[in-house]
C-alpha cells in the first residue's frame, strides 16, 4: 500500500470511528459527501423528484439510527448509504400502496379534480434517464435496484452485493437480465430507419465517485 492509499484508509477509518461515536460533525461531512449520490439513486429508483428528496432525508435518519453498526475498518461508506436508500425506497413503496388502497375505499368526491404534481430540478444524466424511462418500468424491482447501483451509481459487484445483502453471483445475474431486457425494450421498430447505437449508451456506467 502506497502512502496516499494509507492516508486514505486512515481517513476512512477515522470517519467511521467518529460516526460510531455519534459525532454530529462527522455526519454532516457524510451528508455533504454523499447526499447527491443518494438523491440521484433515489430518483432513478422512483422517477419522482419529491419522493427522492424524502428518501434522502429518511436515508440519513436511518444511517444515524444504525451508526453503531458501522464497522471501524472498511472502505467508502457510499455503498452502505445506497443500500439504506434502497431499503427506504422499498418501504416507501409499500406505504404508498397501502395508502392508495385505503384511499380507494373512501367515497369519491367527483367535484375535486386531480392535478399532477409539478416536477422541478435537473440531474446530470437527465437526458439518459429519459431514454430508458419507458424501458425501466418493464424491469422487476430487483433488476432496477441492481442496475441503479452498478450502472448509474458505479458500484462494483461486491459493493452492490454488500449494499443489497445478496450474493455477488445474484448481482451479476440480475444485472445481465436487466441489460438484456433494456436492450430488447429499446429495440427500434422495423422500417423506421432508427439508429441502434443509443442502446449501449443508455446502459453504460456513469461513475459518481466512490470516495
What would a concise description of this structure say?
By secondary structure, this protein is mainly α. The protein contains nine helices and no strands.
Total strands: the figure is 0
Task: Provide the β-strand percentage band.
Answer: under 5%
Main sheet properties: none
Oligomer: single chain
Give the overall average pLDDT. 75
Structural class: mainly alpha
Strand and helix order = HHHHHHHHH
- Rg on CA atoms, Å: 20 Å
Low-confidence parts lasting 5 or more residues at pLDDT below 50? 108-125, 191-207
> How much helical structure, as a percent, in the residues?
55-70%
Shape: globular
Distance from first to last alpha carbon: 17 Å
- What count of helical segments does DSSP give? 9
Amino acid at each position: 500500500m502506497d502512502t496516499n492509499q494509507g492516508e486514505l484508509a486512515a481517513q476512512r477509518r477515522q470517519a467511521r470511528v467518529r460516526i460510531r461515536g455519534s459525532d454530529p460533525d462527522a455526519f454532516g461531512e457524510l451528508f455533504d459527501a454523499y447526499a447527491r449520490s443518494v438523491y440521484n439513486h433515489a430518483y432513478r429508483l422512483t422517477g419522482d423528484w419529491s419522493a427522492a428528496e424524502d428518501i434522502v432525508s429518511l436515508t440519513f435518519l436511518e444511517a444515524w439510527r444504525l451508526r453503531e453498526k458501522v464497522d471501524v475498518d472498511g472502505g467508502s461508506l457510499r455503498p452502505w448509504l445506497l443500500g439504506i436508500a434502497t431499503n427506504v425506497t422499498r418501504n416507501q413503496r409499500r406505504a404508498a400502496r397501502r395508502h392508495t388502497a385505503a384511499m380507494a375505499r373512501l367515497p369519491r368526491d367527483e367535484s375535486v379534480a386531480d392535478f399532477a404534481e409539478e416536477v422541478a430540478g435537473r440531474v446530470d444524466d437527465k437526458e439518459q434517464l429519459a431514454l430508458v424511462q419507458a424501458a425501466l418500468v418493464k424491469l422487476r424491482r430487483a433488476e432496477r435496484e441492481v442496475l441503479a447501483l452498478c450502472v448509474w451509481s458505479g458500484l462494483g459487484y461486491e459493493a452492490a452485493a454488500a449494499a443489497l445483502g445478496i450474493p455477488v453471483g445474484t448481482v451479476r445475474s440480475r444485472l445481465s437480465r436487466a441489460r438484456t431486457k433494456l436492450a430488447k425494450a429499446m429495440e427500434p421498430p422495423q422500417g423506421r430507419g432508427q439508429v441502434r447505437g443509443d442502446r449501449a449508451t443508455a446502459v453504460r456506467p456513469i461513475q459518481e465517485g466512490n470516495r
